[in-house]
Write a structure and sequence with these properties.
There is one protein chain. The chain is α+β, with helices and mostly antiparallel strands and 132 residues long. The chain has one domain (8-131). It contains 6 helices and 4 strands. It has helices at residues 8-17, 27-32, 53-56, 83-93, 95-105, 125-131, and strands at 38-39, 42-43, 63-67, 74-78. The chain has a two-stranded antiparallel sheet. A two-stranded antiparallel ribbon has the order 3-4. β1 (38-39) and β2 form a beta hairpin. α1 (8-17) crosses α5. 17% of the residues are buried. Residues 37-46 have low confidence and may be disordered.
Length: 132
């Protein structure tokens, strides 16, 4: 891949990735190494979790915190469910991207470009529009 060129499959994948709710990925915590959890069902140390696409495309990374109005306690909810259910939901939203990730994990380098791209911002498009 040339530094100045984006292939058609990359562009299609990135367009497909906009269907995911990136505002619920805590990129700051990941960059600082403060993120706890698993990636793709495997325990990974904080230093192994990166903002590269191939690391972030797991349901465990898409979480939101809510405060229970009755008890006042905070709880963490996975946006796309847990385990296979979460992967299924992510495939429904971003099927092409998830297909390339699965190929990469199976040893097929067709999705290797996912390692080359980093998520630098995950915002809610409505909040962006409000600020403009």
């Amino acid at each position: 891949m040339s530094v100045n060129n984006v292939s058609h499959k990359e562009l299609l994948t990135f367009s497909n990735l906009t269907n995911l709710e990136w505002e619920f990925v805590n990129l700051e915590a990941i960059k600082k190494g403060d993120n706890d959890g698993t990636i793709g069902g495997e325990d990974k140390s904080n230093s192994e979790l990166t903002t590269q696409l191939n690391d972030l495309l797991a349901p465990e990374n898409f979480v939101r915190e809510e405060t229970d109005p009755e008890t006042g306690k905070k709880r963490t909810i996975q946006v796309y469910g847990e385990g296979e259910q979460g992967l299924f939901e992510m495939r429904q939203k971003a099927g092409i991207a998830m297909e390339y990730l699965e190929k990469l994990e199976a040893g097929n380098n067709e999705g290797a470009f996912l390692r080359d791209w980093e998520v630098i911002y995950g915002g809610d498009k409505y909040k962006i529009l409000e600020e403009i």
